[in-house]
Amino acid sequence: RKEVEQDPGPFNVPEGATVAFNCTYSNSASQSFFWYRQDCRKEPKLLMSVYSSGNEDGRFTAQLNRASQYISLLIRDSKLSDSATYLCVVNSGSNTGKLIFGQGTTLQVKP
Amino acid sequence: DAGVIQSPRHEVTEMGQEVTLRCKPISGHNSLFWYRQTMMRGLELLIYFNNNVPIDDSGMPEDRFSAKMPNASFSTLKIQPSEPRDSAVYFCASSLSLGTVGDEQYFGPGTRLTVT
Fold first, then answer.
1. Is B55 in contact with A97 (Cβ distance < 8 A)?
2. CB-based contact (8 Å) between B50 and chain A?
3. B72 touches chain A (CB under 8 A)
4. pLDDT at B1
5. Does A40 contact chain B (CB < 8 Å)?
6. I need a surface site. Which of A4, A61, B7, B82 has the fewest CB within 10 A?
């Protein structure tokens, strides 16, 4: 079983749609959780950290369920510029600093 | 603010040649990470440093790969000799710390390596 699992997609949605990505992780000792965004031929960029209470940043909402070891990202009112690959990331626990990256979910927003 | 800086951005070399990739982390960040990304294998952690000391190099594929961090503002990843299967994008990333606070990593633009 992969340490971080994501549905690779692609998710093809029209502009203005709401889309949700899910991710599961296997290490119950993980303490930090993130969503990164990667555009084609570019570096991964931090989109948002994910907190236990859930957090929102504009059109983006992240949720964490520690009991189920499950993370989600909700994007409302999708824009063409949201088209990218979204990487679910968790730390490996034990203050090692190592981050484990999922394979990513590809989103394509169409006009 | 300057982000993570990597050079060169593109490198094309012939099999058997030595390749050196360079990275300057964000000022004040204590941890530095080297990753490799390919379509087949995704993003792989090769090695990381904390306070210039290598912490875990278990991801380094073989002895042809070596990395150094002589000071807080510079690191190199060297491949000698290079092989076609080393072709990939190599990313350097830095973070404030290895703890659970400040462990988000910031990536450089990457070096696209092609070995022919």
1. yes
2. yes
3. no
4. 66
5. no
6. B7
Question: Measured between CB atoms, does A55 come within 8 Å of chain B?
Answer: no
Gap from A74 CA to chain B (nearest CA, Å): 20
Q: Which long-range contacts (C-beta less than 8 Å, at least 24 apart) are formed by A13-18?
A: A13/A78, A13/A107, A13/A108, A13/A109, A13/A110, A14/A78, A14/A109, A14/A110, A14/A111, A15/A78, A15/A79, A15/A80, A15/A109, A15/A110, A15/A111, A16/A77, A16/A78, A17/A78, A17/A109, A18/A74, A18/A75, A18/A76, A18/A77, A18/A78
- Nearest by CB: A91 against B48, B100, B110: B100
Instruction: Count how many pairs of residues, chain A against chain B, have C-beta atoms within 8 Å.
Output: 48
Q: Please check whether residue B80 is in contact with residue B18, taking contact to mean a CB–CB distance below 8 angstroms.
A: yes
Q: What is the mean pLDDT of chain B?
A: 94
Q: What is the pLDDT of residues B24-77, one digit of tens each?
A: 999 999 999 999 999 888 899 999 999 999 999 999 988 999 999 999 999 999
